[in-house]
Amino acid sequence: MSREPGEVWEQFAIALAEMARDLLAQDSVQDTLDRIVEHATVLINGCDEAGILTVRRGEVRALAATGDVVRRADRIQQDLREGPCFDAVTDRQQVYVIEDLSRPHERWSRFAPELRKLGMGSVMGFLLFTEDDELGALNLYSHQPRAFDEAARRAGWILASHAAVAFSAARTHQQLGDALETRHEIGEAMGILMERYGLPENAAFKVLKKASQDRNIKLREIARQVCQTGEKPG
Question: Can you tell me where the transmembrane regions are (predicted)?
Answer without folding.
Answer: none
